[in-house]
Specification:
By secondary structure, the chain is α/β, with parallel strands linked by helices. It contains 15 helices and 10 strands. The strands form 2 sheets. Strands 1-2-3-6-7-8-9-10 form an 8-stranded mixed β-sheet, sandwiched between helices. It is globular, with a radius of gyration of 24 Å.
Length: about 425
Amino acid sequence: MMAKISPETLPRTLLGLKVLALHDANERERQQQQEPDSTATAADASPVEAELLTEALRYMRMSAAAYGRVTLCREQKWSKLDEKRIAQMICLHVGNELETGSVTVPYASLKARWLLPAHYVLLDACRREVVVAVRGTLSLQDVLTDLGAEEVDLFLGGKAHKNMLLGACNVLRAVAPVLEEVAAQVDVVTFTGHSLGGGVAAYLSTLFVEIVDGRAVSAATSPLRLGSDTGQHQQMQVRCVTFGSPGVCSAEVSRSLQGRAVSFCHADDIVPRLSLGHLLELHGRAVAAAVGAGEGVKLLLESARDVSGLLKAAQALPQGLEQILEISRRRTAEARRSDGLEATELLKLYPAGRCFLVQSDGSVQELMPEILVPRIDLSAGRRLVVDHLPKVYEAVMTLAVDRVSAKDSASTEGLSA
């Protein structure tokens, strides 16, 4: 499984990726035929609270607002992002969940630098809440931060994405004076972000809890429930809500953060599946698939040693391709069972906390982190990228809220009748 990565293996790997895409497409089709209603049944069996989804939509819109003119100015009159009017612009984007008169943005860093993503701090006086929203990848500096995927030890245990952890340290250093200044005015500190911003936000929440006086932080042990009853808490609550976040921690650490963090993944979004362990596993699968396909082609050619054999082989080409794919599939399965698999599993990172899979129709299912993102599935094609876009996340989160609200309304009407 841990096949050597080198320029010499690149052609084989590229061929293997093409074959893997066919494998994954066939596997998905087979699963859909066997269990056509499995997703809907699972979602209905474990309904997600409407309150949690409504709050999550609010934070998704704040996360999208962190992209600045990409999301804000498209629907508003201003031709460029004006830091003096950023609070008003964010309120217009988020909607009725934010009251313009009670919201201020005491700090905003709207231009990213290497290891320092763009971010802003929003103070909601009505809810006694301060929100730190971190922008996702939008500039070359962000890409450079993404690419530093070397895994380092995480103070909570397991591994961490080195550059995202450093980015979180730098963001925390920038916003710490502001958070200290508004501490007396808030009961809740929420970290949120999409994509790169989600990964940084997850680390921010853990770092913040580590450096703040433990007596001032609520130590939640039950699964996080987002709500608006913040004024009833005497201790400060720290929580994190991420969307399309890359893997940031081991599965064990992810589960330990369920009382503080919530992560949403949309359908086939590839970013939550892009940890070093997932990529090494994909490379191993691709090499094995290419080797298996080569063996299948060799067998097909050996069956056609003369002209008549070639003619027969051409007539039986569809069946021959199926045989090639089957041999390749067996090779890939054998590679997954090899000793190298354990090494890649140890290097896999997952989104933090409670993990939710949101489908394009708005259905939502809560899953364990290792089930949410088990491996990279290439069958989705361009949806691997399209499903990650912030505007798409806003749309599907809106559908999820509408879907749950409609179901609750129908239940209420049924009880009334």
